[in-house]
Amino acid sequence: MAEDKPDIAWRVVGGLVGLVTAWAARKVLGFAWKKATGKEPPIDTDSPEVSMGEAIGYAVVMGVGMSVAQIVVNRTAKKRYDAWKSLKQVTPGQ
Question: Could you give phi then psi for residue 8, rounded to 5 degrees?
Fold first, then answer.
């Protein structure tokens, strides 16, 4: 069975959604990190000024947070896009 390829419109929409989601998630997670730890998020986790525990904790929070945000937003956007596309395909009088 042939696999359906996403159309070019979804590729563009999906790419834009991904960029916006990554930017917003990074801002939200950075804000949450600052509220939880009282410190700015580490810019360079390889820096000797950042402890190993802090670097690993930040990597875990960012990795999990970014992945969850991408999954939720991508699924929601795809459902909305598919619903819009199916409405667009329906013609009056059918």
Answer: -65, -35
Please identify which residue in the block is written with the tokens 């667009």.
88
Q: Please give the pLDDT value at position 92.
A: 61
The model's pLDDT over 28-51, given as tens digits with 9 standing for 90+, comes to 999 999 999 999 999 888 888 889
The sign of the CA dihedral 23, 29, 30, 35 is: positive
Cβ atoms of residues 62 and 26 within 8 Å: yes
Residue 54 to residues 57, 68, 83: CA-CA distances in angstroms?
A: 5, 21, 43
Runs of H (alpha helix) within the chain: 8-37, 52-89
* Neighbour-count burial of 50, counting CB atoms closer than 10 A to its CB (0-12 exposed, 13-18 middle, 19+ buried): middle
